[in-house]
Amino acid sequence: MKWMNTEKLVLASRSPRRKELLEQMGLAVEILPADVDETEEPGQQPLELVKVLSEKKTRHIMQLKKNAWVLGADTIVVKDRQILGKPENREQAIHMLGLLSGRTHAVYTGYSVGHFARRQMKTHAVATQVVFKTLTRQEILWYTGTQEPYDKAGGYAIQGLGAFLVKEIHGSYSNVVGLPVCELIQTLAALEVIQFKDSHHDPD
């Protein structure tokens, strides 16, 4: 049994992980990445930053797809108030993993769902605490020798080889992957983008 996509959903992201999470939930999506300025304002709090960026991406695509629901999202990794982006090279990846080793960091994802013609928009943000094991130099060198860290905020993928780095998490797992699925489905249902339909009916 699956719910119904009552409306088309456009994903304003090129992230294969977000696409995979949505398809895993039985949602049909169209991919249309939003290229927007992601420069943060000085002093902006992480939860506020991801909400602002997700809204910016959503509004950008809403202008192009005025009769469709648009989903935009932004995920950041924060350690000691420092935002860790995607490492550009192996040295940066090694440095990031060294910072995270044996310690707790936060992953924030903001998401916005909007419809231009209906003048509707909802934005939420979710935080998850992630605890890394204490990594040996050899483990860091091995992992940064793979291709996995280089298009991931914080330099790791919890759903990939990087699972061995993570000792425990507090909060939403899918949030760390790139979309808080529980909260997102709740939002989509509230906006009636999806409806829960039971395909089995009781006999009269």
Write out key terms for the chains shown.
204 residues; two-stranded antiparallel ribbon; 9 strands; single chain; 29% helix; 7-stranded mixed beta sheet; alpha+beta; Maf protein
Which CATH architecture?
Alpha-Beta Complex
Major β-sheet, in short?
7 strands, mixed
Rg over CA atoms: 18 Å
Residue windows where pLDDT falls under 50 for at least 5 positions:
none
Number of helices: 6
Helix fraction, binned, reads 25-40%
Task: Describe this entry's structure for a reader.
- The chain is α+β, with helices and mostly antiparallel strands.
- Helix content is 29%, strand content 26%.
- The protein is built from six helices and nine strands, in the order E-E-H-E-H-E-E-H-E-E-H-E-H-H-E.
- It has helices spanning 16-24, 46-62, 90-100, 137-144, 173-177, 181-190; strands at residues 4-5, 9-11, 29-31, 69-79, 82-84, 104-115, 120-132, 166-170, 194-195.
- Strands 2, 3, 4, 5, 6, 7 and 8 form a seven-stranded mixed β-sheet that branches. Strands 1-9 form a two-stranded antiparallel sheet.
- Strand 4 (69-79) and strand 5 form a beta hairpin.
- The two termini are 20 Å apart.
- The model has no long low-confidence stretch (mean pLDDT 91).
